[in-house]
Amino acid sequence: MGILLTIRTFAVWLAALAAIIAPLWFAAAGLGSRIGLWDWRFGLGTMTREIGPNLLFAAVGLGALALVLLIATAILVKERRAGVGAWVASVAAIAVGAAGLWYAASVAARAADIPPIHDISTDTASPPQFTASLITRRGADANSVDYESKTDPRSGRPLPEVQAEAYPDIAPIAVTAEPLEAYQAALRVARELGWTVSTESERELMFEATATTFWYGFRDDIVVRITALTDGGAVVDARSVSRVGVSDLGANAARLRTFSARLRDRLDED
């Protein structure tokens, strides 16, 4: 029985370590990429997608093993029952591993349900264009901003057609406010959302900004354009493009959706 108790203790310690290390590993992968300790490909690809699932499976396995040993020794060696901490560590390892695997599966399912695109515009017929300076800042390895040439990698269909089907609610934002008022409101909303504004032109009624994600530090560039209507009011168009990656998992559409809602609220539009 002494050997069984030793194995139980060892398994519980390993389960406790797995419950702690697994979430720290994923946090390190995301934050390390954001602050530049390593490239996003290593943080997302190697640490998260390759090594991460193995850690999660290990956590579940170690937690289950520790739990079985705890139950077995509780029955066979009643006078040497483990404390509450051992049971908590075992259950925590299973919970952490299972939650991580469930989340990974949900992300994969979401990715399968949406087209692998990363360039979203409220105006798909004449999308707002980025300035040369911002294109330069995006870098030579960044995704192209040539909207007209883009297609869905899976089906080969034109980007406007694919976007309209996947995100039918992404559309030009018509407001009753005058163009300058709409521009100033849009600029304030962009800053409230945490975007870093890099170009702003009140004369041209446009501005550019960059949104940086908390995890992995992904940068998506946004351009906003305001067009005056002949009978009063204005139309606000926005375009959001990821710098890297094929699929944005719906992030750019969600960003424009949030921007549109905030802008309408600020201008008291229905």
Automatic annotation (TrEMBL):
InterPro entries: DUF1499
TM stretches of this protein: 12-35, 55-77, 84-105
The entry's keywords: Membrane, Transmembrane, Transmembrane helix
Keyword Membrane: yes
Protein name per UniProt: DUF1499 domain-containing protein
